[in-house]
Each structure stands twice: as C-alpha cells, then as structure tokens.
Design goal:
alpha/beta; 8 strands; about 20% strand
C-alpha cells in the first residue's frame, strides 16, 4: 500500500498516511486501542475499493495510537481528529467530502466527536465497525478488580500511573476509570445503558450511519452476545438514516476474508447512496 505521510498537527508532531493525496474526497479511518497504521488486515482491500470512488484513505496517528492510549483520553482523540479535519479543509480548498470510519475505540471517538457538537458540513457519513463496550468486556477479566480497587484508593491523583504489576503498558487512573465506569465518556455501547442515556449520547448524530456488528466478536462476553447484538441493532442503529450490518462469522477485527469482501461492498454501497 503506497501513499504519502504528512504532519497534520505541528504541536504534537502528529502524522497521517494517505493513499491518494490528489483526491478531493477523504475517508478517515480511526483504529482502536493499541492500533496504529495498517493495524487492520482489511485496510488494503478497502483502500482499493475507495480509490475506485475517488476517495483517499487517511489513517491518522493520534496521541493515543499504538501503546500510548493509557495516558490519553478520547477527549484528546477528538481534539486530534478535529485538527486533522481543520488541516484538510485549510490545505485543500476544493475538498468536497469526508467520510469517518471507526474500528473499536475509533467508534467511541466518532460518537464522542459528534456528541460534543463538533461537526463540519463536509462530513457526509459515519461508519462504526466493532462498536463494543470496554466496560462489559473488562468486567470479565480477573485483573480488572485489582485495578479498580487501586484507582478508588488513589482517585485524588487521576493523572498518576497504575503500578506496572497491575497494568502494562502504562495506564493512568483517569483512563482506567474511563474504560471501566458506568456511563463514562467512552461507555457508549453498553447494553445496560438506559433509553434516556442512549438518547443523550446520540441525539446530535444526524448523518447517515452504518453499524457493522460481528457476531463472533471476542470482546463481547459470550453470556451477553445475543443481548448486546440486539441492543446495537434495535437501540443504536434504529434511526431512519441508520443501517445495521451483521457479519455472522466474523471476529472483532474482521479477519475472515469473505466477511471483509462483504463488509467493503456494503461500505461502497453506503458511500454511493450518500452521493445519489
């Protein structure tokens, strides 16, 4: 996969990789926790399809990318996303369209971005792949209890680190609580959220959107898999401009080649429908 690297944030020296810098239509992809450039195996195939629609694929590195998520929050993520969008608008006077796609925590980033009222008229649609609850998954891990006990005991120092014996790579108390607390700023996809909480989270999202759900997602506890899938379909992807896509045989990262092809076909149809 070939393209160009560019600096979009001089303050933090943040870079992004773009597959076709000549395009006036940009598809911004945000990965999840621990992800960096080309972290998902379906990205080269997605890129090939996007180029046929004259869209360039842009993969930004955020302050939280790779193993740096532990000392940043999704508030930092949406600041970085806004800086990228501002950069593209400033540098490309003929920019026509932006599509946002998130994988895993990248989905939280996009939802939180719109929840904070940060929009651009150039953003035409959003795609959420693997929108799962960190809190519901982490609650099944034995290590989470000790981590939360430490955070509660030291809650007055939220920017301090957890001991390496409790979490490695580095993780602040603030981010640990954000990942694990009910209705935190990144607790956006948990199936036990109330209807009123869901309404407040999503009321500012009015763009066309698709939700891509993997039935075999390993980050959804087995005992609530059906419940969570139904919640996403009926409570989150339930607007007139929403579409729910079920991948029956796919894991969180969509490593199944046949499911990748099907998903990308759905994404291309979604983009084409926006431009009709």
């Amino acid at each position: 996969m070939y393209g160009n690297l560019f600096v979009y944030d001089e303050k933090y020296k943040l870079i992004a990789f773009e597959s076709d810098s000549s395009s006036t239509q940009c598809f911004i992809f945000l990965g999840g926790l621990t992800d960096g450039l080309l972290s998902l195996s379906y990205l080269p195939r997605l890129n090939e399809s996007l180029l046929q629609l004259s869209y360039s694929l842009i993969q930004p590195l955020l302050r939280s990318s790779n193993l740096q998520f532990g000392w940043h929050t999704i508030n930092n993520d949406i600041e970085d996303l806004q800086n990228l969008i501002d950069y593209l608008i400033k540098q490309r006077k003929n920019l026509k369209s932006i599509i946002l796609m998130g994988h895993s925590t990248g989905c939280q980033d996009i939802v939180h971005y719109f929840r904070q009222g940060k929009q651009s008229d150039l953003i035409r649609g959003i795609i959420l792949q693997g929108p799962v609850s960190d809190r519901q998954y982490l609650s099944t891990l034995p290590s989470t209890k000790d981590q939360l006990e430490y955070c509660i005991q030291h809650h007055e120092n939220i920017h301090e680190w957890l001991p390496r014996s409790l979490h490695d790579p580095p993780l602040t108390i603030e981010r640990c609580l954000s990942l694990n607390k009910f209705n935190s700023i990144e607790d956006l996809f948990s199936s036990d959220l109330s209807d009123e909480q869901v309404k407040k989270i999503y009321e500012k999202i009015n763009l066309p959107n698709i939700w891509i759900w993997s039935k075999q997602d390993e980050y959804v506890p087995d005992e609530i898999k059906d419940e969570v899938g139904t919640f996403v379909k009926t409570k989150l992807a339930n607007r007139t401009n929403s579409k729910f896509i079920l991948l029956e045989n796919s894991d969180h990262a969509i490593s199944n080649e046949h499911e990748q092809i099907y998903m990308i076909d759905q994404i291309i149809q979604f983009i084409q429908s926006i431009h009709e």
